[in-house]
Amino acid sequence: MLSVLVCVSGGGTNLQALIDGVESGLIRETKIVRVISNNKNAYALTRARKHGIEGVCVSPGDFPDRETFHQAFLRSVEEAAPDLIVLAGFLVVIPEQIIHKYRNRILNIHPSLIPSFCGKGCYGLKVHEKALERGVRITGATVHFVDEGTDTGPILLQKAVEVRQGDTPETLQRRVMEEAEWTLLPRAVDLFARGMITVKDGRAEIAGPEMMKQ
After folding, report:
1. Closest Cα to residue 84, out of 103, 100, 68, 97?
2. 112 and 122 in contact (C-beta within 8 Å)?
3. Cα(98)–Cα(85) distance, rounded to whole angstroms?
4. Which of 73, 105, 112, 202 has the fewest CB atoms nearer than 10 Å to its CB?
5. CA geometry: angle at 18 spanning 204 and 189, to 5°?
6. What's residue 212's pLDDT?
């Protein structure tokens, strides 16, 4: 049974996609053991409680400095003893000690086709604003492993989404979530749970016939 810790800052729609995937059996042999948010008012914590999942808040604002926060965050992660950490809209930089300890066991969902519209400062609606400003015809979402950079880890899954005439950042954000994020993230966790993923030389590979489904 794969133990998953989910980190999220806001409403938790990607968390809900994971919860639904686990409960429906789409994500096999997996249990979400804890949800951590940096925001005590995040609706994601309510979603967790509704499904019997422990939800905790670890906020930088509750600590005197970043190092103390990092230590508390690390303790909260280690208490859950996860096999996999999923960042589902988590707007906090992950401490390097966690990246080192959970190398190739931290997944992030990003609302663009990396390497487009990613990196420092590109999150949330800002990603979709940049895509519309550039005038791209295709955007999408990416699931990747987390390393020490910002959106620079090995790419696991991607899915394209068409940009439509008249799109606003809000409408594009919603369609990227519905058509890409909410399908990619559950699939990524299921693949991990089944041992279908290998990471070598900075590249993530999917074993066997699953590779053909990308």
Report:
1. 103
2. yes
3. 10
4. 202
5. 20
6. 43
CA distance 120 to 130: 13
Question: At a CB cut-off of 8 Å and minimum separation 6, what does 194 contact?
Answer: 28, 29
For residue 122, what is the DSSP state?
-
Label residue 158 by pLDDT band (50, 70, 90): very high
Tokens of 160: 């394209």
Considering only CA atoms, which of 39, 153, 30 is closest in space to residue 90? 39
- The conformation of residue 93, written as its DSSP 8-state character, comes to P
| Residue 18: both structure tokens together | 């994971």
Residue 47 corresponds to which tokens in the numbers above?
């979603």
**Quick count: other Cβ atoms within 10 Å of Cβ 89?**
25
Helix runs in the chain, H state only: 13-24, 43-50, 66-80, 96-101, 125-134, 169-176, 182-193
pLDDT tens-digit series, residues 81-138? 999 999 999 999 999 999 999 999 999 999 999 999 999 999 999 999 999 999 999 9
Q: Helical H runs in 87-178? A: 96-101, 125-134, 169-176
Matching residue, tokens 């990003």? 110
As beta bridge partners, residue 172 has none
Upstream peptide bond of 115 is cis (omega within 30 degrees of 0):
yes
Note the pTM of the prediction, 2 decimals: 0.94
Catalytic residues: 110
- In sequence order, the 6+-apart residues with CB closer than 8 A to the CB of 166 are none
